[in-house]
Amino acid sequence: MRRIQFLAEWATGLAVLILLVLVAEILTPTDAWRPFIKFTAGLIFLFWFLNPVKHLINDAESFTISFPDKIEKWVTEEKISGEAVIERMSADQTAYILEQSEQSLHPLIEQACKCEIQSVQVNSQGEEYEVIISMNGEYKGDRGELLSEIATLLEIHEENVLITD
Fold first, then answer.
1. What is the spatial distance between Cα 49 and Cα 60, in angstroms, rounded to a whole number?
2. pTM for this one?
3. R_g over Cα of the chain
4. Which of 36, 98, 146, 25 is nearest to 158 (CA)?
């Protein structure tokens, strides 16, 4: 009876361990960490499978290797590391998109204002964008009208467009 109870507890623990490993793999942000997870899980499973053999050989009380605090700490550290990687990737993607936007807007704005522009800079301000246009200083037209045309062209508020010399 003790052996059946021991095996039932062992199987339940094994199921929990499998779930923890699956959660760790799901929370892993890149494939580069998967071999480490599999190696660590393999070691834990090895000890877990040796447990009933030792119990049956020694006919002793349950022998359990438990790492709940360490596993929880490791999963938390992996989650934080993964979130940092995702945040860096998101920042890189945003920078790339802004750079591409600047390159695309430059000829459009020149065509709209019929003038030559030194540069176009797009800055992200949360949900909104600010566009800074550097002129050559040769533009003699009405800057207010130019500002309005550019804001209309870009479909943004005029206060988010800045024209500098």
1. 16
2. 0.43
3. 31
4. 146
Angle between helices 2-27 and 68-113 (to 10 degrees): 20
Structure tokens, 160: 């988010």
> Could you report the per-residue pLDDT of 66-119, keeping only the tens digit for each?
667 777 788 888 888 888 888 888 888 877 887 888 888 888 877 777 777 777
Three-state secondary structure readout of the chain: CHHHHHHHHHHHHHHHHHHHHHHHHHHCCCHHHHHHHHHHHHHHHHHHHHHHHHHHHHCCCCCCCCCHHHHHHHHHHHHHHHHHHHHHHHHHHHHHHHHHHHHHHHHHHHHHHCCCEEEEEEEEECCEEEEEEEECCCCCCCHHHHHHHHHHHHCCCHHHEEEEC
Given this model, what pLDDT does residue 1 score? 57
The token pair that represents 46 in the structure block? 């090895």
